[in-house]
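request received
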Amino acid sequence: MPETNAVAIRGGRARASRLSLRFVALLYLSALLFIPVGLVAYKTFQPGISQVWASITTPAAQHAFMLTIEVAALAVPLNAAFGVITALALVRGRFPGKRLIEALIDLPFAISPVVVGLALLLLYGREGWFGPTLTNAGIQIIFSFPGILLATVFITLPFVVREVSPVLREIGDEQEQAASTLGASSWQSFWRITLPSIRWGLTYGIVLSVARAIGEFGAVSVVSGKISGETETLTLLVEKRFNNFDLSGAYAASTLLALIALAVLAAMVFVNRRRDSE
Amino acid sequence: MISAKNVSKNYGEFAALDDVSIEVQPGSLTALLGPSGSGKSTLLRIIAGLEVPDAGTVILGEQDVTHVPPQDRGIGFVFQHYAAFKHMTVRDNVAFGLTIRKRPKAEIAAKVDELLEVVGLAGFQKRYPAQLSGGQRQRMALARALAVEPQVLLLDEPFGALDANVRSELRAWLRRLHDEVHVTTVLVTHDQEEAMELADTIVLLNHGKIAQTGGPRDLYDRPANSFVMGFLGPVSQLSEGLVRPHDLEVLPEPHEEATEAQVDRVLHLGFEVRVELTPAEGEPVVVQLARHEAERLELAAGDVVWVRALTAPVPPDATLADVSDEEVPGVPEVKGPAVTD
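response:
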């Protein structure tokens, strides 16, 4: 049976190539992702759980954790609200300069966070454009909470816009027109029709923004001043401990960061499932 | 009563509506008919308030609503692609207008159940639009539009996205519904058969102007010009003008008023028999015969016969023929020119 043999050989080859593809993919992921992250986890718990606990409950660590959460809790809702408004304006609106704004929205993705930090420094720093005015008014932005917030808002700006715009484009505005013929004002139609229609895109954008806000290092590092117990976020704490040869402390803080990231990832998978099932 | 007076609307250089006036009688079903780009949908959307006219006024009832937003016009609107609220159940879709009006819950529930019964969707309350067929979605959209008891029901190509058999079913159903509910209805369609089957009055539009207004039979039997004639049904072109293929007589013998012609093809389509002929002079023509008539004549390809028009042919209108190229029947049109968007 030469024909069946040929089929069998072809089948065998297909199987072999499928397996080798999987092997390559796994190897790649292992080398770059699983092994480093796994090593961090291993190194964290090597000294024992009590020491890990002690290391992530020091006053500086607690403060860094709270600061990170606070910044994300303010930056993300801000960007969610303005992201939806911007997406609506870009998708539905017709105004001069629309193209330019659309391109500029992605700027935070394109430029290095360190540059963002430096730009903020040039604007709000003691020697910056608004520096003297702000100092006279008694407002401190750089080396304090507002600076960190500004940097985080800037860095996470595009996510919601980019996730919501395609959904808005896809649903069109017929449902909103239908709502208006049924007696809904534009405000009612936004809350009852538009917002529910874009909710999964919005949620996804928010999840991505949270992940980015928590993990941000470069821009925050420039503007925060890294004052322990005051302007030190979790990522900055990791860096400081590492530089001070407190390796196990650095590992513990890293693991805390990784756990938050994992929770965010899990939320993302959940959202994706819900979105697919609808 | 709905009336639109001297309405014009331009999109850039394109004149979608050019000084159009219509009046719709209370309780009637009026069809806005025309090929794509004729302005029929624009006119409907202006009546609904979804578009603002560049000039002219819209009156609903006694009120000038030209600058009233759609939510305050007391209308029901049905879209070609249903515009179902995808994240809401059938019940919530139909209840939407009443919920917005903050009616008591019990009243809303009763009204929704009643309407779903009327449109044949009883028991579908908890489904989502994605779980309905196209026809069911459109019936849900109708129930949703009727729930707020509009003084006017506006339908924009409501069956355009549906299969042919669902479409004809829904048409008959809509006609019955209109006879029961009696809400003043304006329907936009490009399908002349749909307009003739459903409407009391047809407003035929072409290139942003009204070509003719009247009852279905008026337009069919007494077309104002060759465009109306060609759009309302099949036509055959004789040298003197246009006639309906069923207004042609085929004679086996020479006759003083008849033209000699050769039979090209004989098609048996059930009751109707379609005969394609080429006259000695002029373009090929199509004749529709009843089956018994065709059998009596025993026609076959190659036969020589004599044809004559039983009604006076409508002379081709030069000015209209210029502006509408696809719609004017130059070649023997066998089917009505169903223009698809």
